[in-house]
Amino acid sequence: MKIYKIPEATVMRLSVYSRFLHQLIDEGVATVSSGDIAKGVGVSSAQVRKDLAYFGEFGTRGVGYRVDELYGHLMKILGLDQTWNIVLIGAGKLGSALALYQGFAERGFHISTILDVDPARIGTKLGNVEVEPLEVLQDRVKENNIRVGVVTVPASAAQDVTDRLVQAGIKAILNFSPRILKVPNSVILRNVDLSVNLEVLSFNLALNR
Amino acid sequence: MKIYKIPEATVMRLSVYSRFLHQLIDEGVATVSSGDIAKGVGVSSAQVRKDLAYFGEFGTRGVGYRVDELYGHLMKILGLDQTWNIVLIGAGKLGSALALYQGFAERGFHISTILDVDPARIGTKLGNVEVEPLEVLQDRVKENNIRVGVVTVPASAAQDVTDRLVQAGIKAILNFSPRILKVPNSVILRNVDLSVNLEVLSFNLALNR
DNA sequence: CCATTTTTGTGAAATAGTTCGCAATTATAA
DNA sequence: TTATAATTGCGAACTATTTCACAAAAATGG
Predict the structure, then answer these.
(1) A90 touches strand D (CB under 7 A)
(2) CB–CB of B170/B141 below 8 Å?
């Protein structure tokens, strides 16, 4: 079986398409064209078709796509036809916000374990999940078959926490700390640096001074 | 004057380089090579040099870059040689977390105004900033010379809030709601969709099933 | 002062990603 | 039935980005 490398930008767009399709389902729309999707999410129709073409033929020429069908395909492709248990490390401001963020639950991401080292936070509850000490990491990962970790600790603790996640067998890490993390090749790492996003804005604003 | 289009990926990397350089300054390192930077942030040294080449010649052949000097250049390029006042709309979980996030302040982003429509939130304080009603938007933007807005309201309210920001003269918007927003061409828009990031992870995990 | 080493800056080559253009397919209307 | 319109899927062309490779410049050590 030939493996094509899928551009990350394509994957991100698929995620956006899927959300748009969900909106259409709510509105009772039955079929949609690549042009409609394009208009709805702000890309070109050729882009939409190309993105989908990586994964198969989902449409009918002259007609378009059946909304529910395409939505199902996208959710499957994105691995969202299942629930993912997640461990979140760092129950500070950002960690708490993420733990309580409805957007994750809606897409099948279940933060089943929240860990911290601060005794003041351990034992408190975020939603219906109790904050536990970092030491139980390995156990919880095994018990709940957790493959994804979210890091929301201060930069100074980020690499240590990451090493522990790797050690515990975590396969993918979403890092919110502004620190470059080292992980083995077998572990998928994504960085969400909130400041970087503001800095792209300030760069562009500063250009036209 | 010829204007080169700078790839957005380049701008994001400059932001990462600048943080790495700050780390070096703290460690008392005086000079650094493109290879060192590359190693530190996980890109190729050619990439580092190419990125910098868009903006000038900052190094010395055979030697490398003076850390403090390069840092200064990058901060200037990124528009971080000034403080940016920011209005944040939506004082929910995520909004509160961002309002209190130290990472913004450290980079010169000052959330000077926080607005919401929920009477229960209005009048409360996040750090030393009081949550005010949405109606004062226009006044605060003028008073504080605010050019950047951060949207952390639910998807259903996002477009309305965005229209108001545009109306009030905001020039750049960082959108955390999972909604595709329409803005005039003159306004810079960036989307930070937290779920999209997790979905890229689940896509990659689901690939090797 | 010259040979050697280091490391930048940059044109050229390679790779990756997007847009174009159109044949193929389906639906619709005459 | 047949012409017309809509819209996909996809190869080809185009554009953008990254990597390569090396001359040029600076430092170092004999």
Answers:
(1) no
(2) yes
Q: Does domain A84-196 have CATH number 3.30.460.80?
A: no
Domain span(s) for CATH 1.10.10.10 in chain A: 8-77
CATH 3.40.50.720 domain residues, chain B: 84-196
| Smallest Cα distance from B136 to chain A, Å | 23
The overall average pLDDT reported for chain B is 95
For A41, name the nearest residue in chain B, comparing CA atoms only.
Answer: B180
Using an 8 Å Cβ cutoff, are A125 and A147 in contact? no
Each residue's pLDDT tens digit, A63-109: 999 999 999 999 999 999 999 999 999 999 999 999 999 899 999 99
A8-77: in CATH 1.10.10.10: yes
CA-to-CA distance for A152 and B93, rounded, in angstroms? 15
pTM: 0.93
Q: Which nucleotides of D are covered by protein (CB under 7 A)?
A: 5-11, 16-21, 23-27
What DSSP string runs through chain A? ---PPPPHHHHHHHHHHHHHHHHHHHTT--EE-HHHHHHHHTS-HHHHHHHHHTT----BTTTBEEHHHHHHHHHHHTT-SS-EEEEEE--SHHHHHHHH-HHHHHTTEEEEEEEES-TTTTT-EETTEEEEEGGGHHHHHHHHT--EEEE-S-HHHHHHHHHHHHHTT--EEEE-SSSPPP--TTSEEEE--HHHHHHHHHHHHHHT-
C-alpha span between B124 and A80 (Å, rounded): 38
Rounded CA separation A37/A18 (Å): 10
Report the DSSP beta bridge partners of residue A109.
Answer: A84
Residue B163 contacts A, CB cutoff 8 Å? no
